[in-house]
Design a protein that fits this description.
single chain; mainly alpha; about 0% strand; binds calcium ion
């Protein structure tokens, strides 16, 4: 992902590379949110679009957190070899 964005392969994302990312995102957002296809977003279209994006991202993040938790529990359920169970 990072390497795809780093178009000149110098190991950094510079302003130009970043602005290309955002332009592409903005473009996609525009197409997704512009319900009446007049090539501009009304306040309603913008807010609805932002709402959809944030719900989508929220769901994704929730699932990622769930995965992370499941992984942590997996590790917990395995007996720790290096450290004996501590007393509280
Ligand atoms: Ca670069
Ligand atoms: Ca529109």
């Amino acid at each position: 992902m990072f390497k795809e964005l780093d178009t000149n392969n110098d190991g950094y994302l510079d302003e130009k590379e970043m602005s290309e990312v955002f332009r592409e995102r903005a473009d996609r957002f525009m197409r997704m949110a512009d319900r009446d296809r007049d090539a501009r977003l009304s306040q309603t279209e913008f807010l609805e679009g932002a709402d959809r994006v944030s719900k989508f991202l929220g769901r994704q993040m929730k699932e990622e957190r769930k995965d992370l938790k499941a992984k942590k529990n997996e590790q917990k359920s395995k007996p720790a070899e290096s450290s004996p169970p501590g007393k509280k």
